[in-house]
Amino acid sequence: MSPAGPTYGVSASGAVAIFGTNFVPRATIKVGTLGGTTVVSTTAATATTLFVYYSSGKLYFYWSNTSLPRGSYNVTVTNPVEA
Known about the structure:
Blueprint (H helix, E strand, L loop, with lengths): L13 E6 L8 E4 L2 E4 L1 E2 L10 E5 L2 E6 L11 E4 L5
Parallel strand pairs: 4-5
Antiparallel strand pairs: 1-6, 2-3, 2-7, 5-6
């Protein structure tokens, strides 16, 4: 994961990039109590588009300052079954 900001690299509110390989559109992201299916976009996640498939090597999720309390979280990415 490659977030940017002052606390463990996570800002109070913003997009968090997940780097990896073999991601596909409609992959799901789960972070703490946040979770959702990605949509294809050429921009980072926003407050209106929370989970973004950017490329096969990069996904984004939107971390709102009210979404999750500070702490450590496991991040799980699951590609759809048909992938």
